[in-house]
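Hi support team,

I submitted a single chain yesterday and got back a structure, but I'm not sure I'm reading the token output correctly. Could someone confirm the output below corresponds to the sequence I sent? I've pasted both exactly as they appear in my results page.

Thanks,
R.
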Amino acid sequence: MLAALNRLLTIETTDSDDARRRGLLNVLLAGLLVLVFLGLVATVYFDSRGLAKDSSGIYISALVAFPSIIALYLINRYKSGLLASSIFLIFLIGIISFSDTAAEVANGRTLFFFVIPVIMASVLLRPYTSFIFATLCGITIAGLAMSVNLLPNAITIAGLFAIALVSWLSARSLEQALKDVRTINAELDQRVEDRTRELSESLARESEQASQRQAILQGIADGVVVFDTRGRAILANPAISRLTNLPLDHIIAHNYADIIESASLTNEERETLSETLSSPNASSLPLRVRWGAKTLSVSAAPVQDISSKIIGNVAVFRDFTREAEVEEMKNSFVAMVSHELRTPLNAILGYSEMLRDAFYGPLNDKQENATNRILNNSRRLLDIVSDLLDKAQIEAGHLNINSIPFHAAELTEYLHSVMDKMVQDKGLELRTHIAEDIPLQIIGDSKRIQQVMVNLVNNAAKFTEKGSIRVKIYKVAEEYWAFDVSDTGPGIAAEDQKYIFDPFRQVDKTVTRSHGGIGLGLSIVKRLVDLMGGRIFVKSIVGQGSTFSVILPFMPPQKESEHER
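Hi R., thanks for writing in. Yes, this is the structure output for that exact sequence:
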């Protein structure tokens, strides 16, 4: 229950400050929704027993409040937190203004309520907006006072600006502190990499001077182990014992395989760590392993003498527990939020299609144009949410590959049902062909294969203006089958083909791209194909089109999921 509520209230964006503000607004809207609901329930209860004299006003208020709160929630989640918060605060000022008589609001018992939007503005918006809403509240108070022939309460208005000043200072200090924390975290990995490289160079220069090496290692807070060419630990600092909970005499003079075997690692972590320590690469990224209750970041680099001959390698262990917990929370959060976004988006699409099809009555030209805009942007947002969810699941290791028998014809039937309309709307032709040598049944995850195929066809349709899109399913060898997606689009330059499978990368780098998307489609396709034990290739000639080829095994790997570390 708490996890589901957290998914509804939190929003993942690239700007952490924006995510924090929008999450706070969702909490306020949820609380307001609960209060309205409880008030409505109480009214119904008293009304059913004849205790309420005139409850029509409450019912009308509830009917207005519910859709208003939901609308603000949707704007906050899918459109703009800045817009939703501004509307909410202005709406709050309006409620305060009409909550009592003009005299009481301007210079009486209701006056102190104007402090609320001033304080909220610095938290929900930028810190300086507390002054803007202090000004709005002051103008409102002055207007109400003059409407009943009273002098504006100058002391209260000045007090609002004093509160705005305090709110601005507090919010600004908080944002600066968060920014400093993020900067420090961003520098940690770079610092470890620099330290590892410097240590490797130092050990190479001082390989014959053991006493100096020992002095250097004693002053390093990270755990360091130096192995010779046979994989035997010849040097270690006290920090490694603290990090691994192993005495130094269980590390020095022992082989790296014995050290790894004594740790509580998974088989996959043990194999990966063993490979990293046996064949270190100075340019490789740090490896993260779960060592007991800790998460350690392990970097390894070869040690060379003055003649560039490798005489061993050095491994640096850093406590990465806190960072790993934050990263796991981030990936889980993105997956949960993206999953929750799908349901309201599908509802928006459904109702928009009903409006477009005149289910509730005919539309004029402006209404039809607005409905089509809603449909197009909702579909685009749903695609982005789906891509983000898939990427988060893959990064978190939660995406499973389920291998079951299916017919090849199921792939083409599903492809036509999903893509025919989009292709036809662009004046293109979608043609599919299944080779005769394809077996009656194929074993694999048909849903993920359909996702890969739809992604590739959608990408082809997006960039192809005329001609056709062809999908061919065929047998490559006794153990492999494949499908090609070919188009007659503009093609991809050779220098751009190197990074088309990278996340958040597109060939078109201009600010105003003519095609939508955030550059995750092909990246997700590549990861899915890898998880299914296959490979993907691209052949393209500029001006003639592109062909994406996916090769998959008839017997997929037994491993159902992969955690990318």
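A quick pointer for reading it: The longest strand covers residues 294-304. Let us know if anything else looks off.

Best,
Support desk
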